[in-house]
Structures are given as C-alpha cells and as structure tokens.
Design a protein that fits this description.
With about 150 residues, this protein is mostly helical. It is about 65% helix and about 0% strand.
C-alpha cells in the first residue's frame, strides 16, 4: 500500500516538473497536465472551448413567452388564494406575468394579492399596468375601481 502511494506521488511530481520545465505546455494548460489517456485535440483546446460547469440551482431562471404556463401559474395561484395563502399566490401570479408580460389578468391578480399583503404601492403599480395593457377590458374597469378606492 505504501509503495503504491509512493509511486503515485512520484509520477505526480514528475508530471509537475515536466510542466515547469516546458514553458510551451504551461501556456496551453493552466492546470496540471492532463492524463495521457485523453486525445491530443482535447489537451490543446483553449479554456473558452470547454467552459466550467455552471451550477443550475444558482443560475437565474429564464422565462420565455408561454401563455399556457402563465395560465397554469394563475390557476395554481388561485388555489393558494382560496386557501388564504396570499404570499404563495402572489409568487405564482408574478411568475405568470413573467411567462406572459401582456396578461392583464395576471397583473390584476398580482395587484389583489399585494392589497391583501398590505403593499399598497405595489398594488397600485400592478393595477396601473393592467390599465396600460388592456384599457378597454373588464379587468381594466375593475383595476380603475381599485385605484379609485371603490373596490
């Protein structure tokens, strides 16, 4: 066992000394020398060709236009709304606005949830957005009532 450790350590030191003695290899590889089993083309690729893996859990979520996903989030938000979980409902309504930024219904729901959570300024912004998106709709009439303080 000890002999195997010594051999592994010796081969690592030999590889390190070869990298230090050959400056041309040092410029192409910023880390220790790659194992000999890799193909020569992989060893000579610049760092940009093989970027490091990104942790998907910390990457910002990307939203593309998806009206069906927006409607699904509104329905799930409505479920939470009826359970009295307004913060969860708000989260779903906000996701709905990201999947469909032209959904007056989603913005109206955001406004209602913000009202329940006592965020008057955020509710006002959401209701104004509803009126901006669909000024002649039934939802816009309700938003105008909310802004006037009659709703």
């Amino acid at each position: 066992m000890c002999l195997a450790c010594f051999i592994a350590f010796s081969s690592e030191m030999l590889a390190l000394s070869q990298v230090q003695n050959n400056p041309q290899d040092q410029n192409t590889s910023k880390t220790t020398q790659a194992p000999a089993t890799k193909a020569p083309t992989e060893q000579n690729l610049p760092d940009e060709a093989m970027p490091p893996e990104e942790d998907e859990s910390v990457a910002p979520e990307k939203f593309s236009l998806d009206p069906l996903e927006s409607d699904r989030n509104i329905k799930v938000g409505n479920y939470y709304w009826h359970k009295g979980k307004y913060r969860a409902a708000l989260g779903r309504y906000e996701r709905a606005t990201k999947y469909n930024p032209s959904s007056a219904e989603a913005f109206f729901k955001v406004g209602e949830a913000e009202e329940k959570l006592k965020n008057k300024d955020a509710a006002k912004i959401a209701f104004q957005r509803v009126i901006q998106i669909a000024p002649d709709s039934k939802v816009a009439q309700e938003a105008r009532k909310k802004l006037a303080g009659k709703g």
